[in-house]
Amino acid sequence: MTSGNTTKVAVIGFGYIGSVIGATLATRGCTVIGVDRDSTIVETVMSGRSPFVEDTLEERIAQGSRRGDPRVTTDASQVAGCDVYIITVGTPLSQTFEADTDHVQAAWSAIDPYVSDGSLVIVKSTVPPHTNRGRRGGGVCRQEHRRCLLPGTPRRRHAISEFESLPIIVGGVTERAGLAAKAFWESVLDVDVYGWSAARSSPRW
Ligand SMILES: NC(=O)c1ccc[n+]([C@@H]2O[C@H](COP(=O)([O-])OP(=O)(O)OC[C@H]3O[C@@H](n4cnc5c(N)ncnc54)[C@H](O)[C@@H]3O)[C@@H](O)[C@H]2O)c1
Prior knowledge:
The chain is 29% helix and 13% strand. The protein is α/β, with parallel strands linked by helices. The chain has one domain: NAD(P)-binding Rossmann-like Domain (Rossmann fold, 3-Layer(aba) Sandwich), CATH 3.40.50. Helix 1 (16-27) crosses helix 3 and helix 1 crosses helix 5 (159-165). The model is unreliable at 134-151 (pLDDT under 50). It binds nicotinamide-adenine-dinucleotide. Nicotinamide-adenine-dinucleotide binds at residues 12-18, 35-38, 41, 88-91, 103, 106-107, 110, 124-126.
């Protein structure tokens, strides 16, 4: 396990993925400030409990809350001065079956005044290609209306072990951004990190 990491990380959207990432990075020594607009999530985490059922998440949050990490708030101004910003807000399907990136845009706007030159912003939310260039490309599978079998797909309860063991693929809008993201993930997790220059090209690093 990586230790002695002093990186200050903001996690915007402390839902299922955000709380897994935030609590795990806190156990690995990062100072973590989470932001969520849902005050119930904020109150739950700040009282040392987990808002989601997930292996070891409750213990990690309880353990961290004793030293105030992760600290979660509805106030986005609290992210000022962080080294790394990770956006983990939801991207629900819109009525036209496209990924609704409004939450991602809102998260960008909320942190924009506090992100300083050279800080790293990682979008973990699932977004269509080119979203982070300010353009919404296609890339979202669109199906004709038809009868279909609709199974329930409950979340797996292995998000933490997967986050701590599966390789990570990163692609930056610029090569510098991609290399910065690669360096960050390698500094906080013991996993392989592969660089991808763009969604349609070959691995670079
Ligand atoms: N890249 C990955 O490895 C990976 C893996 C799984 C899921 N995802 C993606 O991560 C995203 C989050 O998934 P999830 O399951 O955690 O969703 P979720 O609905 O559990 O959590 C999203 C959270 O974002 C909060 N939120 C929304 N808008 C906000 C805003 N403007 N400011 C602050 N908080 C805001 C919501 O209140 C909610 O708590 C999705 O896009 C999902 O597809 C990515």
